[in-house]
Amino acid sequence: MKLKLPDWKDPKTRLKLIFYGGALLVFILLSAAAGFCFTSTNSFCNMFCHSMDEDVASLSRSTHAELNCRACHGPGELIPFLIYELTASPKEALAQITGNYHKPINKESHAAQHDELLSENCLRCHAITKREVTPSPGVIIDHKKHEEKEIGCAYCHNRVAHPISGYEDFTAMGGCYRENCHSLAAGARAPGKCEACHPKGFELMPKNHKAADFLPPKHAKMAKEDIKYCDMCHMKKFCEDCHGMEMPHPAKFVKTEHGTTGRQNPASCNKCHPQKQFCTACHHKGYDENAGPFTSPDGTGRPVQHPIIVKAKGAESCFKCHGPTYCSHCHIQGKKAASIKGP
What domain range is 230 assigned to? Predict the structure, then answer.
Protein backbone atom coordinates (compact mmCIF):
# COMPACT_ATOMS: atom_id res chain seq x y z
CA MET A 1 0.00 0.00 0.00
CA LYS A 2 1.46 3.33 -1.05
CA LEU A 3 1.82 5.92 1.74
CA LYS A 4 -0.17 9.06 0.99
CA LEU A 5 1.65 12.25 1.99
CA PRO A 6 -0.20 15.41 3.09
CA ASP A 7 -0.96 17.79 0.24
CA TRP A 8 1.27 20.81 0.85
CA LYS A 9 -0.52 22.74 -1.89
CA ASP A 10 -3.80 22.59 0.02
CA PRO A 11 -3.95 25.85 2.09
CA LYS A 12 -5.75 24.18 5.02
CA THR A 13 -3.35 21.26 5.10
CA ARG A 14 -0.34 23.58 4.81
CA LEU A 15 -1.59 25.69 7.73
CA LYS A 16 -2.05 22.60 9.89
CA LEU A 17 1.46 21.34 9.03
CA ILE A 18 3.00 24.70 9.90
CA PHE A 19 1.05 24.85 13.17
CA TYR A 20 1.83 21.31 14.30
CA GLY A 21 5.42 21.52 13.06
CA GLY A 22 5.95 24.79 14.94
CA ALA A 23 4.40 23.34 18.08
CA LEU A 24 6.66 20.30 17.84
CA LEU A 25 9.72 22.52 17.35
CA VAL A 26 8.79 24.66 20.36
CA PHE A 27 8.26 21.50 22.44
CA ILE A 28 11.67 20.13 21.42
CA LEU A 29 13.41 23.43 22.19
CA LEU A 30 11.69 23.81 25.55
CA SER A 31 12.44 20.19 26.45
CA ALA A 32 16.09 20.62 25.46
CA ALA A 33 16.38 23.86 27.44
CA ALA A 34 14.75 22.23 30.47
CA GLY A 35 17.00 19.22 30.08
CA PHE A 36 20.12 21.34 29.81
CA CYS A 37 19.15 23.35 32.88
CA PHE A 38 18.26 20.24 34.90
CA THR A 39 21.57 18.55 34.08
CA SER A 40 23.33 21.56 35.59
CA THR A 41 21.59 21.41 38.94
CA ASN A 42 22.99 20.05 42.17
CA SER A 43 20.13 17.50 42.31
CA PHE A 44 21.06 16.02 38.94
CA CYS A 45 24.76 15.75 39.81
CA ASN A 46 23.92 14.16 43.15
CA MET A 47 21.39 11.79 41.57
CA PHE A 48 23.23 10.51 38.51
CA CYS A 49 26.95 11.27 38.94
CA HIS A 50 28.14 9.09 41.83
CA SER A 51 31.68 10.42 41.41
CA MET A 52 30.34 13.84 42.46
CA ASP A 53 28.70 12.78 45.73
CA GLU A 54 31.46 14.23 47.90
CA ASP A 55 31.68 17.41 45.81
CA VAL A 56 27.92 18.06 46.03
CA ALA A 57 27.98 17.44 49.78
CA SER A 58 30.91 19.83 50.24
CA LEU A 59 29.07 22.54 48.28
CA SER A 60 26.25 22.44 50.84
CA ARG A 61 28.83 23.26 53.55
CA SER A 62 30.46 26.14 51.65
CA THR A 63 29.74 29.86 51.30
CA HIS A 64 28.33 29.06 47.84
CA ALA A 65 25.71 26.61 49.10
CA GLU A 66 22.80 28.56 47.58
CA LEU A 67 24.20 28.39 44.04
CA ASN A 68 23.65 25.63 41.52
CA CYS A 69 26.34 24.04 39.39
CA ARG A 70 25.66 26.18 36.31
CA ALA A 71 26.38 29.39 38.25
CA CYS A 72 30.07 28.52 38.27
CA HIS A 73 30.61 25.77 35.71
CA GLY A 74 30.48 26.50 31.99
CA PRO A 75 29.69 29.74 30.12
CA GLY A 76 27.16 32.14 31.62
CA GLU A 77 25.42 33.18 28.40
CA LEU A 78 22.62 30.93 27.14
CA ILE A 79 23.84 30.06 23.63
CA PRO A 80 27.48 29.36 24.63
CA PHE A 81 26.11 27.37 27.59
CA LEU A 82 23.94 25.21 25.32
CA ILE A 83 26.91 24.57 23.04
CA TYR A 84 29.03 23.72 26.09
CA GLU A 85 26.36 21.27 27.31
CA LEU A 86 26.05 19.63 23.90
CA THR A 87 29.79 18.99 23.73
CA ALA A 88 30.55 18.29 27.42
CA SER A 89 27.52 16.21 28.47
CA PRO A 90 28.20 13.19 26.20
CA LYS A 91 31.81 13.02 27.43
CA GLU A 92 30.73 13.21 31.07
CA ALA A 93 28.01 10.60 30.55
CA LEU A 94 30.47 8.20 28.93
CA ALA A 95 32.96 8.75 31.77
CA GLN A 96 30.29 7.92 34.35
CA ILE A 97 29.13 4.80 32.51
CA THR A 98 32.66 3.45 31.96
CA GLY A 99 33.99 4.63 35.33
CA ASN A 100 36.78 6.46 33.51
CA TYR A 101 36.58 9.75 35.41
CA HIS A 102 39.23 11.63 37.36
CA LYS A 103 39.31 11.40 41.11
CA PRO A 104 39.93 13.47 43.14
CA ILE A 105 37.85 15.96 41.11
CA ASN A 106 39.88 18.99 39.98
CA LYS A 107 42.70 18.22 42.40
CA GLU A 108 45.25 20.35 40.53
CA SER A 109 42.84 23.11 39.39
CA HIS A 110 42.89 21.80 35.81
CA ALA A 111 39.25 22.95 35.41
CA ALA A 112 40.36 26.57 35.79
CA GLN A 113 42.94 26.07 33.04
CA HIS A 114 40.58 24.54 30.48
CA ASP A 115 37.70 27.07 30.48
CA GLU A 116 35.52 24.89 32.70
CA LEU A 117 35.56 27.43 35.54
CA LEU A 118 35.55 30.87 33.94
CA SER A 119 36.60 33.94 35.91
CA GLU A 120 33.71 35.87 34.35
CA ASN A 121 31.34 33.60 36.28
CA CYS A 122 33.00 34.63 39.54
CA LEU A 123 33.06 38.31 38.58
CA ARG A 124 29.29 38.40 38.09
CA CYS A 125 29.06 38.36 41.89
CA HIS A 126 32.55 39.40 42.98
CA ALA A 127 33.42 42.78 41.44
CA ILE A 128 37.12 42.59 42.25
CA THR A 129 37.84 46.17 41.11
CA LYS A 130 35.32 47.57 43.60
CA ARG A 131 35.54 44.96 46.35
CA GLU A 132 37.84 45.36 49.34
CA VAL A 133 40.31 42.49 49.39
CA THR A 134 41.05 41.19 52.90
CA PRO A 135 43.88 38.64 52.82
CA SER A 136 45.48 37.23 55.96
CA PRO A 137 47.60 39.72 57.96
CA GLY A 138 51.06 40.16 56.46
CA VAL A 139 50.09 38.93 53.00
CA ILE A 140 50.02 41.09 49.85
CA ILE A 141 47.68 39.93 47.08
CA ASP A 142 47.83 41.75 43.75
CA HIS A 143 44.83 40.46 41.78
CA LYS A 144 45.54 42.78 38.86
CA LYS A 145 48.92 41.15 38.19
CA HIS A 146 47.35 37.71 38.31
CA GLU A 147 44.68 38.87 35.86
CA GLU A 148 47.35 40.24 33.50
CA LYS A 149 49.05 36.84 33.58
CA GLU A 150 45.68 35.22 32.77
CA ILE A 151 45.53 33.38 36.08
CA GLY A 152 41.86 32.48 36.52
CA CYS A 153 40.09 32.97 39.86
CA ALA A 154 39.54 29.24 40.42
CA TYR A 155 43.21 28.49 39.75
CA CYS A 156 43.96 29.80 43.25
CA HIS A 157 40.51 29.74 44.89
CA ASN A 158 40.08 26.08 44.04
CA ARG A 159 38.26 25.02 47.22
CA VAL A 160 36.02 28.04 47.80
CA ALA A 161 32.86 26.12 46.81
CA HIS A 162 34.10 22.58 47.53
CA PRO A 163 36.02 22.45 50.83
CA ILE A 164 36.92 18.76 50.77
CA SER A 165 39.20 17.10 53.30
CA GLY A 166 42.38 15.79 51.71
CA TYR A 167 42.29 18.25 48.79
CA GLU A 168 45.01 20.90 48.82
CA ASP A 169 43.80 24.48 49.24
CA PHE A 170 45.80 26.57 46.75
CA THR A 171 45.08 29.82 48.58
CA ALA A 172 47.58 28.60 51.18
CA MET A 173 51.25 29.42 50.62
CA GLY A 174 52.02 25.95 49.31
CA GLY A 175 49.54 26.51 46.49
CA CYS A 176 51.42 29.63 45.38
CA TYR A 177 54.63 27.61 45.07
CA ARG A 178 53.27 24.73 43.04
CA GLU A 179 54.67 23.92 39.61
CA ASN A 180 54.69 26.79 37.08
CA CYS A 181 53.81 29.44 39.69
CA HIS A 182 55.93 31.23 42.29
CA SER A 183 59.43 29.83 42.69
CA LEU A 184 62.94 30.82 43.74
CA ALA A 185 64.34 29.09 40.65
CA ALA A 186 65.69 31.13 37.75
CA GLY A 187 63.14 31.71 35.00
CA ALA A 188 60.12 31.02 37.22
CA ARG A 189 56.72 32.22 36.07
CA ALA A 190 56.32 34.33 39.21
CA PRO A 191 58.86 35.62 41.78
CA GLY A 192 59.47 33.55 44.88
CA LYS A 193 61.23 36.11 47.07
CA CYS A 194 59.57 36.97 50.37
CA GLU A 195 59.00 40.64 49.54
CA ALA A 196 56.81 39.69 46.56
CA CYS A 197 53.99 38.75 48.93
CA HIS A 198 54.97 39.99 52.40
CA PRO A 199 55.40 43.61 53.65
CA LYS A 200 58.48 44.92 55.42
CA GLY A 201 58.68 43.93 59.06
CA PHE A 202 56.64 40.75 58.61
CA GLU A 203 57.97 37.81 60.65
CA LEU A 204 59.14 35.42 57.95
CA MET A 205 60.27 32.48 60.06
CA PRO A 206 57.44 29.99 60.74
CA LYS A 207 56.66 29.21 64.37
CA ASN A 208 57.59 25.53 63.95
CA HIS A 209 61.17 26.59 63.07
CA LYS A 210 61.56 28.19 66.50
CA ALA A 211 60.89 24.99 68.44
CA ALA A 212 63.84 23.79 70.54
CA ASP A 213 63.86 20.39 68.85
CA PHE A 214 63.40 21.67 65.28
CA LEU A 215 67.08 20.88 64.54
CA PRO A 216 67.93 18.16 63.87
CA PRO A 217 64.97 15.79 64.33
CA LYS A 218 61.83 17.73 63.39
CA HIS A 219 63.06 19.48 60.26
CA ALA A 220 64.28 16.17 58.82
CA LYS A 221 60.89 14.56 59.41
CA MET A 222 59.11 17.51 57.82
CA ALA A 223 61.42 17.44 54.79
CA LYS A 224 60.78 13.72 54.28
CA GLU A 225 57.02 14.20 54.51
CA ASP A 226 56.80 17.24 52.21
CA ILE A 227 59.97 18.62 50.62
CA LYS A 228 57.84 21.17 48.73
CA TYR A 229 57.21 22.91 52.04
CA CYS A 230 60.96 23.50 52.39
CA ASP A 231 61.36 24.53 48.74
CA MET A 232 59.10 27.53 49.25
CA CYS A 233 61.87 29.37 51.12
CA HIS A 234 65.04 27.35 50.55
CA MET A 235 66.82 26.45 47.34
CA LYS A 236 68.25 22.95 47.20
CA LYS A 237 71.75 24.41 47.62
CA PHE A 238 70.74 25.70 51.08
CA CYS A 239 70.28 22.14 52.33
CA GLU A 240 73.37 20.80 50.58
CA ASP A 241 75.63 23.56 51.97
CA CYS A 242 74.61 22.58 55.49
CA HIS A 243 74.58 18.79 55.06
CA GLY A 244 77.71 18.69 52.91
CA MET A 245 76.11 16.36 50.37
CA GLU A 246 73.17 16.03 48.02
CA MET A 247 69.83 16.08 49.80
CA PRO A 248 67.67 14.06 49.78
CA HIS A 249 70.22 11.27 49.26
CA PRO A 250 70.11 9.85 45.72
CA ALA A 251 69.61 6.10 45.31
CA LYS A 252 73.23 5.61 44.24
CA PHE A 253 74.46 7.19 47.48
CA VAL A 254 72.34 4.91 49.64
CA LYS A 255 73.34 1.75 47.77
CA THR A 256 77.08 2.23 47.16
CA GLU A 257 78.52 5.54 48.36
CA HIS A 258 77.31 6.18 51.91
CA GLY A 259 79.89 3.88 53.50
CA THR A 260 82.82 5.83 52.04
CA THR A 261 81.28 9.15 53.09
CA GLY A 262 80.59 7.79 56.57
CA ARG A 263 84.22 6.76 57.05
CA GLN A 264 85.75 9.90 55.54
CA ASN A 265 83.35 12.43 57.03
CA PRO A 266 81.43 10.88 59.96
CA ALA A 267 80.60 14.34 61.36
CA SER A 268 78.46 15.02 58.33
CA CYS A 269 76.42 11.85 58.94
CA ASN A 270 76.18 12.53 62.67
CA LYS A 271 74.28 15.77 62.03
CA CYS A 272 71.20 13.74 61.22
CA HIS A 273 72.10 10.23 62.38
CA PRO A 274 73.78 10.59 65.78
CA GLN A 275 72.49 7.29 67.09
CA LYS A 276 74.75 4.26 66.80
CA GLN A 277 71.62 2.19 66.40
CA PHE A 278 70.86 3.90 63.05
CA CYS A 279 73.79 2.20 61.32
CA THR A 280 73.69 -1.06 63.23
CA ALA A 281 69.98 -1.50 62.60
CA CYS A 282 70.87 -2.06 58.95
CA HIS A 283 74.45 -3.36 59.04
CA HIS A 284 74.31 -5.48 62.20
CA LYS A 285 70.77 -6.76 62.42
CA GLY A 286 69.87 -8.03 65.87
CA TYR A 287 72.36 -5.80 67.70
CA ASP A 288 71.10 -3.90 70.73
CA GLU A 289 73.62 -1.38 72.04
CA ASN A 290 72.00 -1.52 75.48
CA ALA A 291 73.05 -5.18 75.79
CA GLY A 292 76.73 -4.35 75.35
CA PRO A 293 79.32 -3.10 72.83
CA PHE A 294 79.37 -4.70 69.39
CA THR A 295 83.12 -5.34 69.15
CA SER A 296 85.63 -4.04 71.73
CA PRO A 297 84.92 -4.31 75.49
CA ASP A 298 83.83 -1.02 77.02
CA GLY A 299 85.12 -1.62 80.55
CA THR A 300 81.68 -2.16 82.06
CA GLY A 301 81.90 -5.95 82.00
CA ARG A 302 79.04 -6.23 79.52
CA PRO A 303 79.65 -8.97 76.91
CA VAL A 304 80.78 -8.11 73.40
CA GLN A 305 77.77 -8.73 71.19
CA HIS A 306 79.07 -9.68 67.75
CA PRO A 307 80.21 -13.24 68.62
CA ILE A 308 76.90 -13.85 70.42
CA ILE A 309 74.91 -12.71 67.37
CA VAL A 310 77.09 -14.72 64.95
CA LYS A 311 76.70 -17.85 67.10
CA ALA A 312 72.94 -17.41 67.27
CA LYS A 313 72.23 -16.38 63.65
CA GLY A 314 75.28 -17.50 61.69
CA ALA A 315 77.84 -15.45 59.76
CA GLU A 316 76.04 -15.38 56.40
CA SER A 317 74.82 -11.81 56.86
CA CYS A 318 78.36 -10.69 57.81
CA PHE A 319 79.78 -11.67 54.44
CA LYS A 320 77.39 -9.37 52.61
CA CYS A 321 79.88 -6.62 53.52
CA HIS A 322 83.00 -8.34 54.90
CA GLY A 323 85.48 -10.44 52.96
CA PRO A 324 86.35 -14.02 54.07
CA THR A 325 89.68 -12.92 55.64
CA TYR A 326 88.23 -10.03 57.60
CA CYS A 327 87.31 -12.06 60.68
CA SER A 328 90.52 -14.13 60.79
CA HIS A 329 92.71 -11.02 60.48
CA CYS A 330 91.27 -9.58 63.66
CA HIS A 331 90.87 -12.81 65.62
CA ILE A 332 94.31 -14.27 64.75
CA GLN A 333 96.51 -11.17 64.42
CA GLY A 334 94.61 -9.12 66.98
CA LYS A 335 94.18 -6.02 64.86
CA LYS A 336 91.48 -4.72 62.57
CA ALA A 337 91.73 -5.18 58.84
CA ALA A 338 92.53 -2.21 56.62
CA SER A 339 89.07 -2.32 55.07
CA ILE A 340 85.79 -4.08 55.70
CA LYS A 341 86.66 -6.51 52.89
CA GLY A 342 89.82 -7.72 54.58
CA PRO A 343 93.61 -6.98 54.96
Answer: 205-274
